[in-house]
Amino acid sequence: MLLSPEQFTRLTEYAAYSSHQLKDMLVEFEQEGIFYKYLSDDLQTIDFEGMRHFLTVYFGAELPADLVEQLFLSFLAKPTKNPSMDRRCSVFEDTLNSVRSNLYTLGEKLEKLTSSHDDKASFEGQRIPLKPLVCYLQLLEGASPENKLEVVFHVYDSDCNGYLDKAETEAIIEQMMNVAKHLQWDTSELEPILRQMMSEIDYDNDGIVSLDEWKRGGMTTIPLLVLLGFDTEMKEDGSHLWKLRHFSKPTYCHVCRLLLVGWGGKQGLSCSVCKYTVHSRCVRNAETCCIRTFSNRQTDTMPHHWIDANSAEKCAKCRANVGAFQGKRCRWCHNTVHTKCLTQWPEVCDLGVLNHHILPPSHIFPAFLERKTIKQPHSTNLLQAVSPGSHCRPLLCLINPKSGGKQGVKVLRKLEFMLNPRQVYDISKTGPEPGLQLFSTIQSCHVLVCGGDGTIGWVLEAMDKIQWEHGRPPVAVLPLGTGNDLARCLRWGGGYENESLQKILHSIEKAQPMMMDRWQIKIEQRKKTDKGDPPPYNIINNYFSIGVDASIAHRFHVMREKFPEKFNSRMRNKLWYFELGTTETLSATCKNLHEQIDILCDGETLDLGNGPTLEGIALLNIASIYGGSNLWGRSRKSTGLRVPLIFTPGSIGGGLQHRVQDIGDGLIEVVGLESATQIGQIKAGVRAAARRLSQCSTVVIQTHKPFPMQIDGEPWMQPPCIIQITHMNQVPMLVANNRKTKTWNLLRRQPASEDN
Q1: What is the C-alpha to C-alpha distance for residues 405 and 411, in angstroms, rounded to an integer?
Q2: For 594-653, where are the E strands, in sequence order?
Q3: Are 191 and 368 in contact, with CB atoms under 8 Å apart?
Q4: What is the C-alpha separation between 74 and 3, in angstroms, rounded?
Q5: Cβ atoms of 703 and 448 closer than 8 Å
Q6: So which residues are the signal peptide here (predicted)?
Q7: Among 143, 333, 462, 737, which one is most buried in terms of CB atoms within 10 A?
Q8: Furthest CA-CA distance within the chain
Q9: In what order do the strands lie in the sheet with 327-330?
């Protein structure tokens, strides 16, 4: 007898609108509670009338009779040999199986009961255990993991003494073993690992587990949320992720095998992970056959994941045409093969043309099953990955869908299909940490950041906190932001324009790593009473500036926060920058900035007053700013004389013009900005560069009045302060091997020009 998906959905909807919390209703089962009269003498079971009364109070409404009867039947269990332990384990095993698959499987006795239950009289004398019912309803509740753990604690605390003794923890271990078997994990070595994990919950080693220890352990030390059915990360694979799609060629439904037809052309629901396709009316009958993204234990080989070919393709074996439903298509290697050719096709999947980047499910498995190999036993990461071999470098994709016109949503879906979905993360929801932790144990891997300069900085900072077992992996960039200055320097382009992702992945495969400097910035406000904005970052990856350009960026930021609907495309953003730049030219809010600022480079004071007046100062780590402008410019041919690092404006002709820029030389370039007009001229190519001031390894800046500032395009208003900038570290980045790109000189040491 099965609880249908429709009935399960109905029950879930009732739970979503429930105004009661289970932990508050448990007291009603005590002696003076309203449900006490329905309990058996041992207080472990409840009859049909008691369950119906309990559900009515809990949901705040009377559930349909057929749903209540079905739920009651689902919790009826077979008698077991050991009424104290085996009964509880069997019941909980059935309960968790139902939670995982949304179905309740009953034995032969239940089949006989359901065939004859025509009315309420069928339930006379029948009772169900109370604890599995409470656990299951708790799973449906939209409560936090802490609250769910608390309810489970009280369910297993059978003597209600406020702690779990040895017998009660043994019952939990048996329950977790049942769940592991249901998930098809290799449990041969699991039981001693679970016992060790459960012993670690007892932090004070007093032999019992308190509620605080239970919740602390459930959220940090061991995967209680997984083995008790509360997980969000390790959900069971096989469920489709449906998206409405329009097809450009004849495509057939996998269920009814009829042609897809809809308004505006061929239309249907397609799984974004495996491309299983159905009519909207057929989705209820769709087979649950999506891919598995991880395995129960590491294996060396992986089989194909075959799906019926529902459109015309070429056979990868005989090269003849494959009609609809005349062959199979593998989700991983994307090869289509005739049914008659399958016997001649290798059984082991080679993962296709992107095998260099794919992390196969055979090399991802629950971390606690290989606990002895983990260096950080207290890590909250529930999965562990290992390298498939030296022939490939799995690619971790971290995507910010909110960057630059929200192109990231489309990129996210495409990469989930091209790679293993476990490699692709929407960091606007999860942050970069889960993906970085999963890949921290892989010997050779690459990281692809899909977003703007701010997203890259976010990921690089998160990578600083990860303990990499085999060294920090290099980072490639798919530019989705507005300026994309770092992506330009690394030759990945100024913006993603719907190019072929497969070609981009092949470019990453051929890319070369190089080291990039990063700089630590410390800002000390001179007066604590001054009001200002907090600095957005404490690390400089691209550039730091004070004055005219930061003023434009700050106005842009304020306008975007106030009117976000006016900043929904890359072109609109550039037009706003142009308008705000024109306003700044007329107002000149940072005029004579050099009179209100002091700069020390490597301990030497810069004379800012000798030369044209300045409205801004910029410190450059890379040779691109404002979406492609090079403020340092090209260097002239050296005369062969030794050139010091710091020059005053009056002696710039003596050698500073020969200094070249390199993102990995441990030096940062300092330039002066005369006006917003000069910035526009450099952007347009009318002027070659800004005014060079210094090239050094440490900078100290003191301001005497409030100024707008920005780090990597993120602006804020800063009161008078002292700023210290020092070299922090170097990180590996991937440089695209694209000879057509004209920005190579932005990256490496620039060749000197022949003019003096």
Answers
A1: 12
A2: 597-601, 604-605, 616-620
A3: no
A4: 7
A5: no
A6: none
A7: 333
A8: 105
A9: 306-308, 327-330, 336-338
Tokens 């090209």 correspond to what residue? Answer: 634
Q: What is the DSSP letter of 28?
A: G
Buried b (16+ CB within 10 A) or exposed e, 288-312: ebbbbbbbbebeeebebbbbbbbbe
Q: Are strands 714-718 and 475-479 parallel, antiparallel or unpaired?
A: unpaired
Q: Nearest CA to 669 among 641, 639, 690?
A: 690
Average pLDDT over residues 254-262: 86
| pTM to 2 decimal places | 0.71
- Bridge partners, residue 270, by sequence: 243, 277
**What is the rounded CA–CA span in Å between residue 712 and residue 486?**
9
Taking the alpha carbons of 531, 532, 537, 539 in that order, is the dihedral positive or negative? negative
Mean pLDDT computed over 579-608: 85
Can you tell me whether residue 311 is helix, strand or coil?
Answer: coil
At 403 the pLDDT is: 75
- The first and second tokens of residue 53, run together, are 């009364």
SS3 call for 712? coil
Return the pLDDT at 322: 93
* pLDDT higher than threshold 60 for residue 279: yes
Residue 359: CB atoms within 10 A of its CB come to 27
pLDDT in tens, 134-146: 766 665 555 566 7
Two tokens, residue 400: 């910010």
Task: Give the HSE-up count for residue 678: Cα atoms under 13 Å, Cβ half-sphere.
Answer: 20
**Which amino acid appears at position 61 of this protein?**
A
The SS3 call for residue 176 is helix
Beta-carbon count within 10 A of 136 CB: 21
| 518 φψ region: left (φ > 0), alpha (ψ -120 to 50), beta (else) | beta
Token pair of 606 as six digits? 């810069």
Place of tokens 């900043």: 567
Whether the CB-CB separation of 95 and 136 falls below 8 Å is answered with yes
Q: How confident is the model at residue 698 (pLDDT cuts 50, 70, 90)?
A: very high
Written as one string, the DSSP assignment of 266-291 is: EEEEEETTT--EE-GGGGGG----PP
Asked whether 178 and 229 are in contact (CB, 8 A), the reply is no
Q: What is the pLDDT of residue 647?
A: 39
Q: For residues 735 and 712, what is the distance between their CA atoms, to the nearest angstrom?
A: 20
Q: CA 97 to CA 116: how far, in whole Å?
A: 25
Yes or no: say if 551 and 717 are a contact pair by the CB < 8 Å rule: no
SS (H, E, C) 381-408: CCEEECCCCCCCCCEEEEECCCCHHHCH
* Backbone angles phi and psi of 37, in degrees to 5: -70, -20
Q: What is the pLDDT of residue 2?
A: 38
Instruction: Show the beta-strand stretches assigned E in 103-258.
Output: 127-129, 163-164, 209-210, 242-247
What radius of gyration do the chain's Cα atoms show? Answer: 32
* Cα 363 → chain centroid: 19
| Cβ atoms within 10 Å of 640's Cβ, excluding its own | 7
By the 8 A CB rule, do 171 and 86 touch? no
Number of other residues whose CB lies within 10 A of the CB of residue 524: 9
Lowest mean pLDDT among 345-354, 515-524, 528-537, 726-735: 528-537
Pairing label, strands 543-547, 707-711: antiparallel
Position with higher pLDDT, 19 vs 307: 307
HSE value, Cβ hemisphere, 13 Å, CA-based, for 713: 20
3-state class of 90 per DSSP? Answer: helix
Cα of 585 vs its chain's centroid, Å: 42
